[in-house]
Amino acid sequence: MPYFGRNIRTAVFGQSHAAAIGVTIDGLPAGEAVDAVELEAFMARRAPEQNRMTTQRREADRPEILCGIVDGRTCGAPLTSIIRNGDTRSKDYAAIADLPRPSHADWPAHVRYGGWQDVRGGGASLTGCAVLRDLGAASVTTISRSGLDNYGNLDRHADAQLIVNTTPVGMHPTCDASPLETLEAFPALESVLDIIYNPACTELMLLARSRSLPTENGLSMLVMQAQAAAERFLGHALPDAAAEDILKDMTLQFSNLVLLGMPGSGKTKVARRLAELLHRPFVDVDELIVRKAGRSIPDIFARDGEAHFRDLESKVIEGLSAGHGLVVATGGGSVLRERNCRLLQRNGLVLWLHRPLEELPSAGRPVSLARGVEAIFVEREPIFRALAHRIITSRRLRTQFSRSSEKSRETSDHQRPQHQFSGHSRTGHLRQHNLQGPVRNTRDLVRRCRRLMRAFPVQP
User: Fold this and answer.
1) In sequence order, what DSSP letters do the residues of 295-338 get, joined into one string?
2) What does the pLDDT look like over 114-147, one tens digit per residue?
3) Is residue 220 packed enough to be buried (19+ CB in 10 Å), middle (13-18) or exposed (0-12)?
4) Which helix (H) or strand (E) holds 191?
5) Of 98, 353, 359, 413, which is most buried, counting CB atoms within 10 Å of its CB?
């Protein structure tokens, strides 16, 4: 049992599904008064079901002092206290002794502890610490609700380079939650790993991305543990490449394909046809707004103003953000609210349809008519650029438009033979060039979108 501290040494013990958890504190001077009422009030602060940081199981959480206190004062012996576990439901875990669960740390714990681990808990935190140490981490610190390292003294860990979230905070349906409200306490941070995989991009990951830090969710852990479970079930090994292919396929197939762009850039036409070709549900944000409001968009702008329209738009986007496998055409101004940007990234692969400004129409578009296309582009272009995972340009823009080396790969095929789509032969050409069926990879998706942009040119 490891102890922390020098003069006063502290050790915790027990397991979530054992009879109790507890703490032993050694080195306390004798004769110190212990206020039982204050202790209970302190413990009540972390009682279950109070907020997003506490367990949802119903347990009393009352400390029971076994030794170290006599007549309300420390006696010089180590002080040991336990909290008995109540709502453990351990029988729910009986079936997993020989079959690791995907999305849990069962298999890593099995390897780490030679099969003697307690299968009744996920063990994600302990296993994560063990793996990081095995990989050579200089120091691994566990942050808890209480104890020496807690959410109240995060500034003690300003040198942290990697944050790993092993809690369910931020998991669907409480996607707005995050174990950390800010990353300002970690100036040396280099990366964030969140073992949650639904949503694909959590609020914690978005905090990291706002600092241009690399992030990873827990889907890879889910797939690798599924491979381990399948190997045990089938009785033979599976190639590692199979899990990698499955991970890529799941990432793409379960992501919403979110099309951004200027008003009139063809998002609806391209998204609708893309959905048909990929056999995915198609959703148009503007169409949903019109359906819910029972009025046209110009009428909403004229009678209620742009702010009211943006409120309606935000509600629609929030409802779509929990979806999977959709093709979503957004309104041109949907990115003007920061919350919308976060929502679109939760389960979305964001594609920016970028056309030359002179090709964009303004007729029937209230904002374009009122402000002009150029002014709108100056305002929104930085947002499109920051949000987009891939930028789909028309052929005319390809010679003018440049990106960083990281994002230039999706436009590297511009020297390949170009195909024109027009009139009655449009559908035939789309099928001829294999735009139907499952998407093989992101490059394949970009290729299809680019050809659809050429198939559906806009008229200014």
Assistant:
1) S-HHHHHHHH-HHHHHHHHHHHHHHHTT--S-EEEPPTTGGGSH
2) 666 665 554 677 778 888 888 888 889 888 776 7
3) middle
4) strand 191-194
5) 353
Q: State whether CATH 3.20.20.370 applies to domain 255-455.
A: no
Q: Which residues make beta-bridge pairs with 258?
A: 328, 350
Matching fold, domains 91-221 and 255-455: yes
Burial 222-251 (b: 16+ CB within 10 A, else e): bbbbbbbbbeeeeeeeeeeeebeebbeebb
Burial class (CB in 10 A: 0-12, 13-18, 19+), 427: middle
Q: 3-state DSSP helix/strand/coil percent for the chain, to nearest 5?
A: 40, 15, 45
Q: Which CATH code for domain 91-221?
A: 3.40.50.720
pLDDT tens-digit series, residues 29-41 = 999 999 888 888 8
Are 72 and 4 contacting, i.e. CB atoms less than 8 angstroms apart? no
